[in-house]
Amino acid sequence: MRRLAAIVLLCAGCSACGGVQSALDANGAHAAHILSLFWLFTGICVAVWVLVMLGLGLALRRRKSERQGSERTARLWVGSLVGLTVAILAALTAASFLTGHSLAALGEGDDLTLKVTGHQWWWEVRYEDPDPSRVLTLANEIHIPVGRTVKLELASTDVIHSFWVPSLNGKTDLVPGRDNTMTVRAERPGVYRGQCAEFCGFQHAHMAILVIAEPEAEFAHWYEAQLRPADEPDDPDRRRGRDVFVSGACAMCHQIRGTPTGGRVGPDLTHLASRRTIAAGTLPMGPENIAGWLADPQGLKPGNNMPRVDLSPDDLQALTLYLAGLK
Ligand code: CUA
Question: 306 alpha carbon to ligand 1 midpoint, in Å?
Fold first, then answer.
């Protein structure tokens, strides 16, 4: 039984080391510094633990066999170990300070600024640009160019959230009324999953964000594609879907650029189907899940702000086709 528990623990431990969301799989400049600090702390703490256990074992043996020993020796031991403890704590404090210094030295990243706003329970992302026609508003997915330091301005409209993409950097809170900033720099292309790291209500666990790091050219291509308004529907079913969207309840909360909608309560859906997930990581993107979400948003993510909208089966199908085509 014990052996089985050990194997299970070992497997669980190893599975946490890799993958799309792990602080032990550093792919960003900031995360790499934090990971070095983590291993330094872990190594020293393990060494101290082993030494304490050895010391304890030795002391117990000596006590059994001799029950003697001079007071002076004991005092000497205690004194030097107190000294060693102070030295170790000072060294760890210094290492922590130096890591903070290295993180600050990575710079502010002025060339690409994103405003990330936390909502219960999704992420609004706005790419800032001096040219207003190039400002881009998206949700739940960030694309960044590899090797560039990106500045994130963090805000919240309701409660405290926390932005945490462990492969790229540590956590920073999004606090209502107080704007925090952080920077990320991906060193390798990849998809890095992040998660709200501050309990923010019922669906806190369904508040994920994906950061997609890609080479500069791919990023620029993606950006241009996202700036474009939604394509005109090319068949009657999708046109019907668009009409359902524009004339129904959807338009009160959502926006699809290129249509007469401008709702800002919920995520911008202009290129919804180009994203990898629905409802901040709740479901993988796909027509079936879009239909499922439209049919029962409260069943899939209870407590979220999207109400169930009564649609006829034909309208539901048309709307699904339309949304699934918003690449
Ligand atoms: Cu947002 Cu937890």
Answer: 17
Q: What is the distance between the alpha carbons of residues 309 and 7, in angstroms, rounded to a whole number?
A: 48
**CA 115 centroid distance within chain:** 15
**Per-residue model confidence as pLDDT tens digits over 63-101:** 666 655 678 888 898 899 999 999 999 999 999 999 999
Whether the Cβ atoms of residue 305 and residue 280 lie closer than 8 Å to each other: no
CA distance 254 to 122: 13
Report residue 249 as tokens: 């309840």
Q: Where are the beta strands (DSSP E) in the chain?
A: 113-119, 122-127, 136-139, 141-145, 150-156, 161-163, 172-174, 180-184, 190-195, 208-214, 277-278, 283-284
For 108-141, what is each residue's pLDDT tens digit? 776 899 999 999 999 999 999 999 999 999 999 9
Residue 161 alpha carbon, nearest atom of ligand 1: 1
Residue 119, ligand 1, Cβ within 6 A: no
Whether ligand 1 lies within 6 angstroms of the CB of 194 is answered as: no
Contact between residue 141 and residue 114 where contact means Cβ atoms under 8 Å apart: no
**Given this model, what pLDDT does residue 5 score?**
60
Tens-digit pLDDT profile for residues 256-277: 999 998 888 999 999 999 999 9
Buried b (16+ CB within 10 A) or exposed e, 1-29: eeeeeeeeeeeeeeeeeeebbbbbbbbbb
